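User: My instructor asked us to take a sequence, write out its structure as tokens, and then describe one feature of it. I'm not sure where to start. Here is the sequence I was given:
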Amino acid sequence: MIPLLTVPALLLGMRSSVEEGSLGLEVAEAAVPAPSVAPLPLEVNARVEHWVKRFQGDQWPVFKMLLERKGAYDVLINDKLKERGLPEELVYLAMIEGGFLPGAVSSASAVGLWQFMSPTAMEFGLRVDGWVDERRDPVRATDAALDYLTYLYGRYGSWYLAAAAYNAGPGTVDRVLNRYAGGRIGDDQLYWQVLEYLPLETRHYVARLVAATLVGEASKGAFEIASAAPYRYEVVFVPGGTLLRRVADDIGVEGDVLASLNPHLVRGVTPPGEAGALRVPLGTSPRVVASMSRTASRTS
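Assistant: Let's start with the prediction itself. The structure tokens for your sequence are:
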């Protein structure tokens, strides 16, 4: 358990969470133009204070573990948030969604860091099939999640309503707003006003997001957090049907290293019949290329 801090002390202790870094060689992907958006409000009320106390108290061991995992994806997510002009605090939405686990699967079959259901994932351009599940891909899933959040913010003009819709679905939020708020949008206070009519999980969702931001930011420098190694890689294009374990053997790394860099390759192999990108540890791409060349020469 950590020493309890008051909410004013948490607010005073907050600082920017942006880190500089590089993911190595990446496939260039089109970015959504940075929208003109408001910052994520950090409103403090009884619900937020309840979760601040929980995260600092009985849930601190789990929360600390999540902060440690956060180190793996801070650079990736924050760089993409900056590119789009979105609030940096949205990194904590990934925390409360998937716990910074690319392989996270919910009881409702939502998958990945950002907990996409299959229909929404495919609507936002993610591949989901028997060979590839890009909901598990930290890069592609983050792009899709930020596309979705940008859309939801544009739809509601409120980060609290956008977050609620991310959790419960825009159809649910629309029905509640139409019935209990006269269809109004564009006001963060509407979330608190219609809260009791939303699904149970969604009633806690924004409070948890705000509390996670306050506690997470205030914890920086105040406590020892064994941050996970950043998610960094190089990209090599390989033939279809390339086995990850064979590449790992060829370049002398553990098989789980390539699996952790390519969690979207659900069978541990690139899709047959199509050349594709494989993520490999920094500095190993020349060895992978040489290995691929040797294999090609033996089979020609």
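For the description part of your assignment, you could build on this observation: The chain has a mean pLDDT of 88. Try explaining in your own words what that tells you about the chain.
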